[in-house]
Amino acid sequence: MENLRPKILVAIAIAMLCIGGMGLCTTNARADWYASATYSPGSAYIGDTVNLQFNLKNTGGSTFQIERASMNVEWGSATTTRTMTGAVAIAPGSTGMVSCSFTVPQVSPGTYTMLVTIKAKAVGDLFASTDSYRCNLAVKEVPPLSVSVQASKTSGQAPLSTTLSCSVNGGVGPYEYQWTLGDGTTSTQSTVSHKYSKGGMFTAVLVVHDSRGQISSDSVIINVQANPMDLSDTSGGINPLLLLGVAGLIAGVIIVVAITMLKKKASPPMPPYQPPLQPPVQPPVH
Fold first, then answer.
1. Residue 202 belongs to what H/E stretch?
2. Which of 1, 116, 160, 168 could form a disulfide with 156, with the two C-beta atoms 3.0–4.6 Å apart?
3. Can you tell me the distance from the alpha carbon of 67 to that of 64, in angstroms, rounded to the nearest whole number?
4. Contact criterion met (CB below 8 Å) for 145 and 208
5. Is 0.70 topped by the overall pTM?
6. Are 195 and 157 in contact (CB under 8 A)?
């Protein structure tokens, strides 16, 4: 029995190692997790704030948990690094999103790489694994802003109705519009319908601002002739109808005076005033 004790102890130790080994083998040290990825946006202007949305679709057979997600961009003279937040666990066939924001610095236009790194672990894995995704970002220079103004009618008699519109090129929207129509009227719409009620030369001016602080302007002249039937419209000087009316009034007064004078000349002169004759007084009889 003394000689068997060491053998029994060795056998027990071997059995324990096997059991332990079997326990370790039930869990993979680094099982694969599989995911396809999409992202947006794919382009931006210099100075833009980019909201990067990175979508991971679980194409494997096990749920995996994201332990860390990050994004890195090498601009050449500068580096942008962000921690991404969002989905924690993604089930098979499901899609989760992680995101971050950053501003495009003053760099040369071109294509830059957003390197997204995901550290995740499938359910049942002992260790996490890391995958990286290269996402292209086309950086564009902000185009110069320009605007041109059109009017459906640029001349006519008052009241003149016209529609003012514009064409905006370049810049980055949204745009802000500021109209001054020359008669005290203003508007912030891109297209304006307006009635000029009086005669005159009016300059309609449009100033456009884009989201990058660029400014452009244009104008159009509206020539409105005074309406001769509107006695209150003196935009072109004294209204001719008003002059005609005054002339007619003066002529009427002259005619009345002349007629009165003619009537006086045609009438016979009045005889001088003669007092009535008194009968002679008879002396009294005695």
1. strand 200-209
2. 160
3. 9
4. yes
5. no
6. no
User: 239 with 226: CB under 8 angstroms?
Assistant: yes
Residue 37's nearest CA partner among 51, 57, 67 is 57
Quick one: DSSP state of residue 109? S
Bridge partners of 120? Answer: 66, 129
Per-residue pLDDT of the chain (286 residues; tens, 9 = 90+): 445 454 444 444 434 333 333 333 233 344 468 889 999 999 999 999 999 999 999 998 899 999 999 999 999 989 999 999 998 999 999 999 999 999 999 999 999 999 999 999 998 888 899 999 999 999 999 999 999 999 999 999 999 999 999 999 999 999 999 999 999 999 999 999 999 999 999 999 999 999 999 999 999 999 999 987 765 665 655 555 556 666 777 877 788 777 777 777 766 666 666 666 666 666 666 5
Task: Name, in order, each residue with C-beta under 8 angstroms of 84's C-beta and a sequence gap of 6 or more.
Answer: 52, 54, 69, 70, 71, 98, 99, 100, 116
